[in-house]
């Protein structure tokens, strides 16, 4: 029941039809967010949610011999045998890895964005004298 537009001949991409935000529940249990003008949404600080959602993966990973295990075939890794035995579904583990990688990228990007903003603010305020920066007024010339 969602309106759709045609595809542009020039680049094969769709035309915009969304004019208002909407949330759609999918039969599979998923949720579709239609937000006009928003190209992508990123996860922000969702480590706890990932760990809760993938509690089964976390419990298996806790059995790894080393705490810094990357679950990539290292000696003592519990994930590989769990995948081989069917205890852990490969697709579920891939989803877990994908969300963790996305979270790490977004967290890094957020820190970098905040650092850039702080540097810019320091540069902007460096040229101001303490008095002029607090009052925002200029002195009158006599």
Structure description:
The protein has 142 residues and is mainly α. It has a single domain (22-124), classed as Ribonucleotide Reductase Protein R1, domain 1, CATH 1.10.40. Helix content is 45%, strand content 6%. The protein is built from 5 helices and 2 strands. The chain has helices at 47-53, 55-61, 79-85, 90-126, 130-135, and strands spanning 22-25, 31-34. It has a two-stranded antiparallel ribbon. A hairpin with a 5-residue loop joins strand 1 and strand 2. Helix 1 packs across helix 2 (55-61). The longest helix has 37 residues, at 90-126. The N and C termini lie far apart (72 Å).
Summarize the structure.
The chain has helices spanning 47-53, 55-61, 79-85, 90-126, 130-135, and strands spanning 22-25, 31-34. It is mainly alpha-helical.
Extract low-pLDDT stretches: none
CATH superfamily: Probable gtpase engc, domain 3
Write down the domain tally. 1
CATH architecture: Orthogonal Bundle
Q: For the residues shown, what is the average pLDDT?
A: 85
- What's the total number of strands? 2
Helix content: 40-55%
- The CATH topology is Ribonucleotide Reductase Protein R1, domain 1
The portion of residues forming beta strands comes to 5-15%
Features:
142 residues; mainly alpha; Ribonucleotide Reductase Protein R1, domain 1; two-stranded antiparallel sheet; 5 helices; 2 strands; 6% strand; flat
What is the topological layout?
Blueprint: E1 22-25, E2 31-34, H1 47-53, H2 55-61, H3 79-85, H4 90-126, H5 130-135
Helix pairs in contact: 1-2
